[in-house]
Design goal:
The chain is an alpha/beta fold and 698 residues long. Helix 12 (360-369) links the parallel strand 11 (350-353) and strand 12. The longest helix has 26 residues, at 221-246. It is globular, with a radius of gyration of 32 Å. It binds adenosine-5'-diphosphate and magnesium ion (MG). Residues 269-272, 275, 298, 300-306, 428, 452, 555, 557, 559, 586 line the site of adenosine-5'-diphosphate.
Length: 698
């Protein structure tokens, strides 16, 4: 097999020295393969080609011609250097002039074919038409068709479009012939996709007849081909992993006994229809002999915790263990309290495990022996030291805060230690289905659409810096009515950024402003037991105003809290704002969210705040957030352990993604092997290289 083009350094390309290589590297281009796959982000229409004999002064035009002569001369009086190019296309002659660019002399030679684009002028002295400083392209060979449509590449300082196009052209000349088709032919055929070489060639030089609007919409067959490739490689990797996971056995948890019924009967409320359906779906999945993989999505406050606890009770009832992992210590602590309160009465033993937990070793022992039936904690749960006796269910709360790696870690752990646990992940940030598929692979989804009855939606108001008086008034009223207040700040202390209000200063401010109120401070740098004590007091109604950082962002549930003030609201992300707002409106009393913004606001910040005022619907918020931030950041795929898509776009190329997924799963189902195609195997290896979820054979 020929050497992989990903191992050919850019310097091997003609015209690329150390300096250009360094510039290219800042664009993420390090190899010949990178160059070939460096896709234009836009195509410029150079307009209709004109014959020289038809050129009209005062218009702009583009001509293709051959160089007759190239001369550098110096004007006598001003001693300026003028570079003159005389060209012909057979219908006439055209002179082009550039001032003070003597280096152009080395760019052109007689007989060369060029493309020139510029304003046509009439030269009265010479009685002929000419162009001054036209844009130019030198064409590689006779008949080269890089004509009307000029590709535009993302550039960096010191690297012009022209230079980039030349580098690409050289790379095409030298290395395109070495590119190997790696996509099985039947897949290309079924999806009407062109070959690899053709696609790469046409992407960089679409030719005269290309449909520019199609290219600019990224919908040409050639672009689709390379997008498909990436999506296929992604899907194939996920399918391979899914197949490996499917081979894992799980502990079947058959419905039996009445513990779950008893648990539900003791709840002070009735499950909503969405919760009920979710519990049903989960218990059904868990009765199978292979691991459940289910995403439970539901807006903030929709009551996902009860659903999770139901699943946990269901597992424990059968004599198995369950684990619940939360992204923050506060949230883990809260879950522990809830579960402890609810499960203790049922005779179930739960324990809390976070990095701050003392006497870990005895806890590890009790988990290993099965005495602890439910382990609740942070990512400390997936540390090496934790061994379960018979873990049947793993619940991950607020999955969007974790990324995929921890999930993988859970599976890896299970694989080593016996049967794989059923997995339930929960999120309040619903994501489009195709995206869910892309990060989780095959995954079933339960959705809770409604909020428990009797809640009035949180009223949201936006205030600016100058309107602090109104904010204080609102807080006073709330306190008088017996409500509790959160005041959230973006930073703990802000000495270097004086302009930013900090939680520490805010705390002092509230103490002075409301001398009779019980004001407390909460942030991530406080010791864990202090934080816990504060949260306990808040829950117990012993705190009136809790001045906090975003440590309370997710999951925290204090039904008595009725006012949320977010200071520097312009600094928070949309999902974050929505999560924070979700900390109130959890009881029956109407709640308020006050957004306090400090101008000037960026365009995006204004858009986020508008969205907050417009809706309390988490699904719409998620959509808007997604649109503002784009998929990569929204999903946090950068940290997720998945390969990053360089070319394809999960939203734009949704259809292609579905097609690629289908092909990938067929590929596996039919028992085809990566090893059958060395080129495909290599492509997979390079695509997944260095990823946390790298493949284990194929
Ligand atoms: P989230 O989905 O955001 O995790 P929680 O599970 O924290 O929401 O639930 C929010 C609040 O709603 C909790 O106080 C919980 O006890 C309560 N709750 C859950 N389900 C119901 C229900 N069916 N009826 C009334 N209250 C409920
Ligand atoms: Mg929650």
């Amino acid at each position: 097999m020929p050497e992989s083009l990903s191992r050919v350094p850019v310097q091997a390309i003609k015209g690329v020295g150390e300096k250009k290589a360094a510039l290219l590297s800042t664009l993420g281009i390090n190899s010949a393969k990178d160059v070939l796959y460096y896709l234009p982000f836009r195509y410029q229409d150079m307009g209709e080609l004109r014959k020289i004999s038809e050129l009209q002064p005062g218009t702009s035009a583009i001509v293709r011609a051959e160089v007759l002569s190239a001369n550098l001369r110096t004007t006598l009086r001003a001693r300026k250097k003028i570079f003159e190019l005389l060209v012909t296309d057979g219908t006439g002659r055209l002179k082009c002039k550039w001032f003070n660019q003597p280096f152009l002399k080395n760019r052109f030679r007689k007989g060369q074919r060029v493309l020139l684009s510029g304003a046509v002028q009439y030269n009265f002295f010479e009685k002929s038409i000419e162009m001054e400083s036209p844009a130019y392209e030198t064409l590689l060979q006779q008949g080269e068709k890089a004509g009307r449509v000029l590709p535009a590449y993302k550039l960096t300082e010191g690297l012009s479009g022209k230079v980039m196009r030349n580098i690409v052209r050289e790379a095409l000349r030298e290395y395109l012939p070495q590119m190997e088709e790696f996509m099985p032919e039947d897949i290309l055929e079924r999806n009407s996709l062109p070959g690899l070489k053709e696609s790469i060639l046409r992407i960089h030089g679409p030719g005269e007849k290309a449909d520019i609007s199609e290219l600019n919409a990224f919908r040409s067959p050639w672009q689709k081909r390379v997008f498909f490739d990436e999506l296929f490689l992604l899907s194939l990797g996920m399918s391979l992993r899914a197949r490996d996971e499917e081979r894992l056995a799980a502990l079947p948890v058959k419905p039996d006994g009445d513990l779950l019924k008893r648990f539900l009967a003791r709840l002070p409320f009735k499950l909503t229809a969405g919760q009920e359906k979710a519990v049903e779906e989960i218990t059904r999945d868990m009765s199978q002999g292979h691991p459940m993989k289910r995403l439970l999505q539901g807006d903030v406050g929709s009551g996902k915790t009860v659903v999770a606890i139901s699943a946990i009770v269901h597992a424990v009832e059968q004599g198995f263990q369950a684990a619940l992992m939360a992204p923050t210590e506060i949230l883990a602590g809260q879950h522990f309290m809830n579960i402890h309160a609810w499960l203790n009465e049922l005779g179930i033993r739960a324990a809390l495990l976070t990095s701050g937990t003392k006497k870990k070793s005895s806890l590890y022992r009790d988990i290993a022996s099965g005495q602890v039936q439910v382990a609740i904690g942070t990512h400390a749960l997936i540390s090496e030291a934790v061994r379960f006796k018979n873990l049947a269910l793993a619940v991950i709360d607020e999955q969007h805060r974790f990324g995929v790696m921890q999930r993988a870690a859970l599976f890896a752990k299970a694989e080593k230690e016996g049967p794989c646990p059923h997995l339930l992940v929960m999120t309040a940030t619903p994501i489009p289905r195709t995206l869910a598929l892309s990060i989780y692979g095959d995954l079933d989804i339960s959705t809770i659409y409604e909020l428990p009855g009797g809640r009035t939606p949180v009223k949201t108001e936006l205030h600016y810096e100058g309107e602090k008086g109104k904010v204080y008034e609102a807080i006073s009223r709330e306190l008088e009515a017996g409500g509790q207040v959160y005041a959230v700040y973006p930073v703990i202390e802000g000495p270097e950024k004086e302009s930013l209000r900090s939680v520490v200063k805010g705390f002092e401010g509230f103490r002075q402003k409301f001398p009779r109120a019980r004001v407390a401070l909460l942030h991530g740098r406080m010791p864990e037991d202090e934080r816990e004590a504060v949260m306990r007091a808040m829950r117990g109604g012993e705190i009136d105003i809790l001045v906090s950082t975003t440590v309370i962002e997710v999951g925290v549930d204090v039904p008595g809290a009725t006012l949320m003030l977010i200071v520097h609201a312009e600094r928070f992300g949309l999902s974050q704002l929505h999560q924070l707002r979700g900390r109130v409106g959890r009881g029956s009393r109407p709640s308020k969210c006050l957004l306090l913004a400090y101008p000037p606001l960026t365009e995006e910040a204004a858009r986020r705040l508008r969205a907050m005022l417009a809706t309390t619907d988490g699904f719409r918020i998620a959509e808007e957030d997604f649109l503002i931030r784009g998929p990569g950041e929204f999903l946090g795929t950068k940290q997720s352990g998945l390969p990053e898509l360089m070319r394809a776009d999960l939203i734009r190329d949704r259809e292609l993604f579905l097609a690629a997924r289908k092909e990938a799963s067929e590929f596996i189902k039919r028992g085809r092997h990566l090893s059958a195609s060395a080129a495909l195997a290599r492509e997979m290896e390079e695509f997944w290289a260095g990823k946390a979820m790298a493949l284990k054979g194929g």
